[in-house]
Automatic annotation (TrEMBL), chain A:
It comes from Trematosphaeria pertusa. PANTHER family: AT05822P-RELATED, MITOCHONDRIAL IMPORT INNER MEMBRANE TRANSLOCASE SUBUNIT TIM-17. The keyword Lipid metabolism does not apply. GO terms for biological process: protein import into mitochondrial matrix. This is Mitochondrial import inner membrane translocase subunit tim-17. The keyword Hydrolase does not apply. Belongs to the Tim17/Tim22/Tim23 family. One of its GO terms (molecular function) is protein transmembrane transporter activity.
UniProtKB/TrEMBL annotation, chain B:
This is Mitochondrial genome maintenance protein-like protein Mgr2. SMART domains: Romo1. The keyword Membrane applies. Pfam families: Romo1 (PF10247). Signal peptide: none annotated.
Length: 162, 116
């Protein structure tokens, strides 16, 4: 189980910040390139900068809202189910997608919930697969015994001196 | 920033920044491929494949979402010190030292000194 992360209420705050930073950094690169390409010659640098300043924090905010809401639901689902398995994330993703689409009406809530749950299911599946794959190439096997020689190097000289 | 040395047992070091970048990119890329396949397929069924033909549309979907996901997930894994547990664990498994060391690499033990 997972002991490197904060306990439940605090992990929401932590992941909110992490998601915001991820969105802000990614948005800076993304909108930097986009603003650079969409500006006329001579104003490309200032155009890129303007696009970054205007849009990167917004993208960060979107990511942050998503991450924070997801973690809040994740904690809630963990508290209700008293279990830790991939279904937690999938259910929480469904709730997240539903709440984010709440202004679009019932239909759009359903669609958002389904697509978010699918997204989370794929992420969970891929991470399980990655774990398996990484574990596969370090099978535990004894290295060949070293050839029959004298004492190992460590301490050999010392023994004579003593 | 790599994981501090003190937090890993046995003097092993955590993944470096480049390791995390690669790991996040790889994971995001595969997630994006699968997501692109699922959603692209849904969209083709719902709205038709468009003028490019079905396979090309699907491929564009998959590659586009793989690039986007990989990009953001690489950044997301890199900037956090306590990175995603999955990445750290997978790294630790991939770079773990063998459990049984050949004799000449073993650390000197006090008892061996005393016996002689």
């Amino acid at each position: 189980m997972d002991h490197t992360r904060d306990p439940c209420p605090w992990v929401i705050l932590n992941d909110f910040g992490g998601a915001f930073a991820m969105g802000a950094v990614g948005g800076a690169v993304w909108h930097g390139i986009k603003g650079f390409r969409n500006s006329p010659y001579g104003e490309r640098r200032i155009g890129a900068l303007t696009a970054i300043k205007a849009r990167a924090p917004v993208l960060g905010g979107n990511f942050g809202v998503w991450g924070g809401l997801f973690n809040a639901y994740d904690c809630a689902v963990k508290g209700v189910r008293k279990k830790e398995d991939p279904w937690n994330a999938i259910i929480a993703g469904g709730f997240t997608g539903g709440s984010l689409a709440v202004r679009g009406g019932m239909r759009s809530m359903r669609n958002g919930a389904i697509s978010c749950a699918v997204l989370l299911a794929v992420i969970e599946g891929v991470s399980i697969g990655f774990n398996r794959m990484m574990a596969g190439n370090t099978k535990l096997e004894a290295p060949p015994m070293p050839a029959q020689t004298s004492e190992p190097q460590v301490g050999g000289g010392l023994a004579i001196a003593a | 920033m790599p994981v501090p040395v003190g937090s890993m047992p046995g003097g092993q070091h955590g993944p470096s920044t480049l390791d995390k970048l690669k790991m996040g990119g790889m994971m995001g890329g595969s997630v994006g491929l699968i997501i692109g396949f699922i959603f692209g397929f849904t969209n083709i069924i719902r709205y038709g494949p468009g003028p490019n033909g079905m396979l090309r549309t699907l491929g564009q979907y998959m590659l586009g979402s793989a690039a986007t996901f990989g990009f953001f997930m690489a950044i997301g894994t890199t900037i956090r010190t306590e990175s995603s547990l999955i990445a750290t664990e997978a790294f630790a498994k991939a770079y773990r030292r063998p459990m049984i060391l050949p004799r000449q690499y073993q650390y000197p033990r006090a008892s061996r000194e005393e016996k002689n």
